[in-house]
Specification:
This protein is α/β, with parallel strands linked by helices. The protein has helices at residues 12-23, 37-47, 63-71, 93-99, 111-122, 130-139, 160-170, 175-182, 186-200, 205-214, and strands at residues 3-8, 28-34, 51-54, 80-85, 103-106. It contains ten helices and five strands. Helix 3 runs parallel beside helix 4. The longest helix is centred in the last third of the chain and has 15 residues, at 186-200. This is Response regulator transcription factor. Residues 4-122 form the Response regulatory domain. Residues 151-216 form the HTH luxR-type domain. The modification 4-aspartylphosphate is found at residue 55.
Length: 223
C-alpha cells in the first residue's frame, strides 16, 4: 500500500513542488494539503495520513503546536510528522522535536532525500540525518541544561551498556556506527535502543536524543 502523505506549508508553490516529486513515486500518495496548522489538524482527522510533511513557521497555528496535537496522547491517528526547516537550522526545530516530530529535513534537500526521509519515517524510524540532528542540538545549546542538574531517576533504570548506547544516539550515530564503536552487531544495538525507549517511556530515537541532552547525560558540544 502507498504511504499517505499530507503536505503542510503556507507557500503554495512549495507544496506544488513537493507534490510533483512525491507523486512520481509509486509507493507515495499525496492525500491532501494544508496552508497552516489548523488546517493540518482538520486534514489529519479527515484523511488519516501516514506522514505529515510539516513546515514550522505558518499563520494561525505554527508547526510546533500542530505537531504537538497530531502526535500527542489524544491524537486521532498514527500520523508521524516530518518537519521541514531552513538551511541554517530553524530555532523552533528543537521545540518541534520535543513536541513529537519523528525527524526533520532541510527544505533544500535533494528530491531523493525527501522521498527516502518519508519512507523512513513511515516505517517507524526516526533521527533523520543524525549529523544534522547533532549540529542542531549543539547550535541551540542555550535552550538545554548545562549538565549540572540532578540526573532524572528514570536514567538509573538503564544498564551501563544502555547508557552508552543512549549517549551515542544523542551524538548522532547511526545503528551501524554505534555497532562499530561498541564492537557489537547492529541487531544488538537495535535491541539496546528498544530497551532504552521502553524504560524511559520514549517514542523514538529523536525523543531519546533530546532526553539525553535535557537530562544532562550529554553536554551540548561534547565529543
Amino acid at each position: 500500500m502507498a504511504i499517505r502523505v499530507l503536505l503542510v506549508d503556507d507557500q503554495p508553490l512549495l507544496r506544488t513542488g513537493f507534490r510533483m516529486i512525491l507523486e512520481a513515486e509509486q509507493d507515495l500518495a499525496v492525500v491532501g494539503e494544508a496552508g497552516d496548522g489548523l488546517q493540518a489538524l482538520d486534514q489529519v482527522r479527515a484523511l488519516q495520513p501516514d506522514v505529515v510533511l510539516m513546515d514550522i513557521r505558518m499563520p494561525r497555528m505554527d508547526g510546533v503546536e500542530a505537531t504537538r496535537q497530531i502526535t500527542g496522547p489524544e491524537r486521532d491517528g498514527p500520523a508521524k510528522v516530518l518537519v521541514l526547516t531552513t538551511f541554517d537550522l530553524d530555532e523552533y526545530v528543537v521545540e518541534a522535536l520535543r513536541a513529537g516530530a519523528s525527524g526533520f529535513l532541510l527544505k533544500d534537500a535533494p528530491a531523493n532525500e525527501l522521498v527516502q526521509a518519508i519512507r523512513v519515517v513511515a516505517a517507524g524510524e526516526a533521527m533523520l540525518a543524525p549529523s544534522i540532528t547533532r549540529r542542531l542540538l549543539d547550535k541551540y545549546a542555550t535552550h538545554l541544561p548545562s549538565g549540572d542538574e540532578p540526573v532524572p531517576d528514570t536514567l538509573h533504570t538503564l544498564t551501563d551498556r544502555e547508557v552508552e548506547v543512549l549517549k551515542l544516539v544523542a551524538r548522532g550515530l547511526s545503528n551501524a556506527e554505534i555497532a562499530a564503536d561498541l564492537f557489537v552487531s547492529e541487531t544488538t544495538v537495535k535491541t539496546h535502543v528498544g530497551h532504552v525507549l521502553t524504560k524511559l517511556g520514549l517514542r523514538d530515537r529523536v525523543q531519546a536524543a533530546v532526553y539525553a541532552y535535557e537530562s544532562g547525560l550529554v553536554r551540548p558540544g561534547a565529543q
